[in-house]
Amino acid sequence: MTLFSNLLMGFGQALSPFVLLYTFIGTVVGTAIGVLPGLGPAATLGILLPITFGMDPLCAMAMLCGIYYGAQYGGSTTSILLNMPGESASVVTCLDGHEMAKRGRGGAALGISAIGSFVAGTIGTLLLYLIGAPISEAALAFGPAEYTILMALGLSMATSLGGNQLKSMIMCILGLLVGTMGTDSLTGLNRFAFGITSLEQGFELVPILMGLFALGEILSDIEDGMGSNPEMLSVSTRLRDLLPTGKDMKNSLGAMLRGSIGGFFISVLPGIGAATSSFISYAVERKLSKHPEEFGQGAIEGVAGPESANNAGSSGAMVPLLTLGIPGTTTAAILAGGLMMYGLVPGPLLFRDYPQFVYGLIATMFIGNMLLVILNLPLISLWIRMLKVPLHILYPVVIAFIIIGGYSTSLNTFDLFVLVLFGFFGYLINKNKFPAAPFILGYFLGPLFEANLRKALIIGRGNPGIFVERPISGVLIALMVMVLIGPGVMSFVKNRLKPAGSGSIKD
């Protein structure tokens, strides 16, 4: 198939009424979640994942992906109006977005954020469409030895998914251990069931995700306190006041394009994340500006660039997930769990065996980005009112949904026990600053790593030299070394490019 025919096939799938409906639901829910500080897309996907059980895979993933990139968009609203980032990737938007709001230009800041998000989402999705198939075709040449190194590369990325490498490594090892529980995929024997019948198949993924990312996060927020909502700057919600001027668009166009392309390729690297790409975009725009002193004082380029990088990053994060089966972010790990729940294994076989699903999903991302810019500018007043909902009313409702969702997946009370267990585990690791994402990465990739390792050693008759026989193995090993030293390099770059006024952001 040609690229053009693949795109037509994808839109043929995406334009069906039910897929359009779930794409719409996902983008609206995602924006709402991004607006509300604290909950986040990972926790939301953990809550909603059981609801999608039994749904058509394309409808389900269209909704879940819509929540993902919709939340990236919604995070800018609280950054601009409250100086509180709804998402970690929106931290940099506070620097100039909130300053614009204080000067009476909050509407223009929200407008340029929406337009930048649309431009970035469209460019990012187009790049995903163009490079996804070639990468997956190259990965199809991998044998068990290459897959073993690829999975090891994915596991090494656990050190990039948290601030502390040692804590990230500990969590990844715990995930590996939990992933070994249940039935051995090669021998069919039960392992580490401890005589408990319910453990013979291991822990289900959905209760783990809901416990770690939803219940654990809410318990942490409850302990931190749910006082009165912070003071919010007033902003006109008339559509004409939200549209940037011609001068604003001229000043922002270059920042949007640079942020979109740079943010996409930075986020393709697993473990880097949209927050880093938005930070780098801000620093680059400040360096390129003829008036760098205006940054931190309400420069519109300081909103357009980072927001574009942020939203392009959600498309970039889908590249390693769909093509190699490696989730590079927490949210991507949950999406990987969703794919497996629908009977689809993320990786190169998706493009070969399920092209209608893959290109249909990419087409929904084009449509979703268009829906975001069409719907969300008129809905700004709704998002502002939502910010006034007290958390002590919101969270009990969310907890009820978590419990119902945890039980409805398999109608097994043991899953409720697992959900509560991992909820308290999530609370404890949050309290002690241990990242949850490496645990999921270890749990998800560990069984794949073990199975391919054993297959490779069987093929090589126990000779470890099989892992370095082909040139691609050397490339993957080199990438693994880069991943392990990458955090140190990124830390150095951040310190060198640290923007002025970053201390004004509220925690």
Automatic annotation (TrEMBL):
The record's section on Pfam families has: TctA
Q: Which residue ranges traverse the bilayer? A: 108-131, 138-162, 168-190, 261-284, 321-345, 357-377, 389-407, 436-453, 473-493
InterPro entries registered for this protein in UniProt: DUF112_TM (IPR002823)
- Domain DUF112: start-end pairs: 20-441
Sorted keywords for this record are: Membrane, Transmembrane, Transmembrane helix
Could you name the domain of life of the organism this protein comes from?
Answer: Bacteria
PANTHER family, from UniProt? TRICARBOXYLIC TRANSPORT PROTEIN
User: What protein am I looking at?
Assistant: DUF112 domain-containing protein
Recorded source organism is Formimonas warabiya
Origin organism lineage = Bacteria, Bacillati, Bacillota, Clostridia, Eubacteriales
